[in-house]
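Good day; I would like, with your permission, to put a structural problem before you. I would ask you to consider whether the tokens describe a fold that such a sequence might reasonably adopt. The full record is reproduced below for your convenience:
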Amino acid sequence: MPQTSANNTQQRLKTFAQTIANWQKAAGRHHLPWQESNSPYTIWLSEIMLQQTQVATVIPYYQRFLARFPTLKSLATADVDEILPYWAGLGYYQRAHNLHKCAQIIYFEHAATFPKTAQELEQLPGIGRTTAAAIAAFAYGERAAIMDGNVQRVLARYLGIRESPHKQAGKRLFWDYAEQALKAAPNSLDMTAYTQGQMDLGATLCRRSSPNCQPCPLQASCYAFAHQVQDQLPTRRARKTPPKRHCFMLVAQNAQNEFLLEKQDDVGIWAGLWALPQFEQLDDLYQYCRQQGFSSTTKAKRLTRVNHAFSHFSLAIEPWYVTGAPLTVKENDARLQWFCAKNLQDAALPAPIRQILTPLINV
């Protein structure tokens, strides 16, 4: 913290929550599709999708997903393989598996009734402290603090917090101030407006770069604005160059215009999705073709490389296109399946796999 008194900090926190709630009602976002209902099901769905994902990216996925699974029952009673195509391309696929597990627990073990407190919600798969608090606040009005990148940025700049939110001591400090702000707020505080307002303020005004301070409701008491250190707060994590990985992928097409895909394990970067067979070496790809009994007359053609960034590494994919008639696969590998080109549009494919296949499908 800067060299300011504890009393000064407490004085700032007295009006923090109510100021944000008032601003949200007047100038915040009010037309997001999940704001149309106070159903805990739709609120929960949106909060899971919004984990580490931008609002603009989530909106079309949310609408498409909800059209297919409009109720908790429809989601809980579906097979996970029915769900994954509606998540494909959104990333962080373990979220979809946890979403399904969570729906089943609530529907079958809790009589289709969502827990009503953040503490209870946090016990469910895929629901952490912030997600639980957001659901409880939006659905039930519970006074529970949230903490994401937007909230960290607003608090750090408003109070002048220089401790890193990426270290344990800093995380505890941020949570402590978030809880103090709630304790200092009046009992009449609108938790929906306050919770949404923190995210809206960080996303639209108190942005990571080029913050728009003039219309900010907190400007008059903001430490960062007063000292013109917005670009220094919050303290950023030391940037590391993500490791680069490389692989070869087999794009096999048979005479029936079908493409060979391999079901991925239920854990990993593409948990449960269908992807192209992957290899570390090109020789391994050729050996695999021989082992699977592909026609010896087939020829491989290198396609355009695809680069895809994950959260902790980047992957360079070198696709090799093999076509011929006929192509067959040994029956004892249940993970392998031929997909008709016209059905790939609805298959649960990761974004880079769809990028590779789309030009071939449309030929």
Remarks:
- The domain at 244-361 is CATH 3.90.79.10 (Nucleoside Triphosphate Pyrophosphohydrolase).
- The radius of gyration is 25 Å.
